UniProtKB/TrEMBL annotation:
Residues 1-440 form the Glycine cleavage system P-protein N-terminal domain. SUPFAM superfamilies: PLP-dependent transferases. It catalyses: N(6)-[(R)-lipoyl]-L-lysyl-[glycine-cleavage complex H protein] + glycine + H(+) = N(6)-[(R)-S(8)-aminomethyldihydrolipoyl]-L-lysyl-[glycine-cleavage complex H protein] + CO2. One of its GO terms (biological process) is nucleoside metabolic process. The gene is gcvPA. GO terms for molecular function: glycine dehydrogenase (decarboxylating) activity. Keywords: Oxidoreductase. This is Probable glycine dehydrogenase (decarboxylating) subunit 1. Its EC number is 1.4.4.2.
Length: 455
């Protein structure tokens, strides 16, 4: 390498760095950093234990909603993805030597396609936000000549920011559709007024950002198809144990977040962006990511897995690539596949029911604590907004009170929806017990009464 670039030695390579700033190998032990010497494993463990002991340990799982949720992750999921053949396996560029990895991805695609009732699933996107952004770009490529995309105001605001960043250089106009202040659902009349011949596609998230179950998804999609627009559904996969899948509602494209399927919260990532389409080659050819298919060896004696489509690749098509996503979340997809295999259809339905009933029990208890838990009149799944308007405290003060009592409260949404004022989004899953919910309600009641908490 040195010879190729015309340099005689490593010292010459770094010769532009002044001598006084260069560290000689024999000086490294005398550096005035850290502990001034290497530490033994025992010393390091004791040091780390001391640091970790300073962390606050919550009394309950967090109640913050907004797109990432605490769910139970079975140990077998963690064990499987910790195996070396999965953990160190990168995206299969040399597909013929990656049979095991491709089979795992194929299983993920198949399970996800069944859950969504969609025909083709890729492997895979970074997260929900990037999946939605790629869907918008894809819609614009398929519906050439149309530059407008409708996105409801009750869409996750974090996802919308990603979409704005992705689409701005492409000249795509994102047009916001309002929501009904009584129901929290997409305003159907506003959709009708903004759908026109310039509209490339329409997005609906269900349950939406407020946790509200959108009852008019099918009607919105039918209106869009009448105007020649493509439809994109955003889904929370755990909810599909009770709600109709996007394929049944008429979605051309479905996106979502696989974090709830055995991935854990992971401090905000990595997550798993779900991306699926109905069977239409115009759509399939424009999908980002990869598709793994099942075939046979040339003589037909054995089955084999192959990469059947990767037209998006920048290393193949350069600037003509359908996407410049540079990896896939294969390890996360495998985790989701293991998780879905463990639950099966019956288990997923039961999980969905627990999430639904826990949230409704929590609504009742928080209402008894003197809070307005019916910001919207519609039914909801997993999470709902709670209004703190008129309680005499700003929500951030309430949140600090909860943290002082080692409880992590909901997500303040006033910054994104000023019309809702002092409102926070609280989420409840299968990991929240009845005692956890009762504790939250009782603690909120204490804070509203002005009682001092004991950390």
């Amino acid at each position: 390498m040195l010879k190729t670039i015309g340099v005689k030695s490593v010292e010459e390579l770094f010769s532009d760095i002044p001598e006084t700033y260069r560290l000689k190998f024999e000086d490294w032990l005398r550096l005035d950093i850290g502990f001034g010497r290497p530490l033994s494993e025992v010393e390091l463990k004791r040091l780390m234990d001391e640091k970790l002991s300073k962390n606050t340990v919550l009394r309950t799982p967090p109640f913050m909603g907004g797109g990432v949720y605490p769910h139970y992750v079975p140990p077998v999921v963690k064990y499987t993805i910790s195996r070396g053949e999965f953990l160190t396996a990168y995206t299969p560029y040399q597909a013929e030597i990656s049979q095991g990895l491709m089979q795992a991805i194929f299983e993920y695609q198949s399970l996800m396609a069944e859950l969504l009732e969609m025909d083709v699933v890729n492997a895979s996107m970074y997260d929900w936000g990037s999946a939605l952004a790629e869907a918008v770009l894809m819609v614009a490529r398929v519906n050439k000549g149309r530059s407008k995309f409708l996105i409801p105001k009750n869409t996750n605001p974090f996802h919308k920011r990603v979409v704005e960043a992705y689409t701005r250089p492409h000249g795509i106009r994102l047009v916001e559709v309002g929501y009904d202040r009584v129901t929290g659902e997409v305003d159907l009349e506003d959709v009708k007024s903004k759908l026109d011949s310039e509209t490339a596609g329409v997005y609906v998230q269900y349950p939406n950002f407020f946790g509200v179950i959108e009852s008019g998804v099918k009607e919105v999609f039918e209106l869009a198809h009448e105007r020649g627009a493509l439809t994109v559904a955003g889904v929370y996969p755990v909810s599909l144990g009770l709600l109709k899948p996007p394929g049944e509602l008429g979605a051309d494209i479905a996106v979502g977040e696989g974090q709830s399927l055995g991935l854990g919260m992971n401090y905000g990532g990595p997550h798993l962006g779900i991306f699926a389409v109905r069977y239409d080659m115009k759509l399939i050819r424009q999908m980002p990511g990869r598709l793994i298919g099942l075939t046979t060896t040339r003589d037909g004696s054995e089955r084999a897995f192959s990469m059947v489509l990767q037209t998006r690749e920048q290393h193949i098509r350069r600037e003509k690539a359908t996407s410049n996503i540079c990896t896939n979340e294969a390890l996360m997809a495998i985790a989701a596949a293991v998780y879905m295999s463990l639950l099966g259809g019956t288990g997923l339905r039961r999980l969905s029911e627990i999430n639904y009933y826990n949230a409704h029990y929590a609504q009742m208890k928080l209402s008894e604590a003197g809070l307005d838990t019916k910001v919207f009149e519609s039914d909801f799944f997993n999470e709902f907004p709670v209004s703190f308007n008129g309680v005499g405290l700003r929500y951030r003060e309430v949140h600090e009170g909860l943290l002082a009592r080692r409880i992590h409260g909901g997500l303040y949404v006033g910054d994104y929806y000023p019309e809702l004022g002092e409102t926070a989004l609280f989420a409840f899953t299968e990991v929240h017990s009845k005692d956890d919910i009762d504790l939250l309600a009782g603690t909120l009641s204490e804070i509203l009464r002005g009682e001092r908490g004991v950390p």
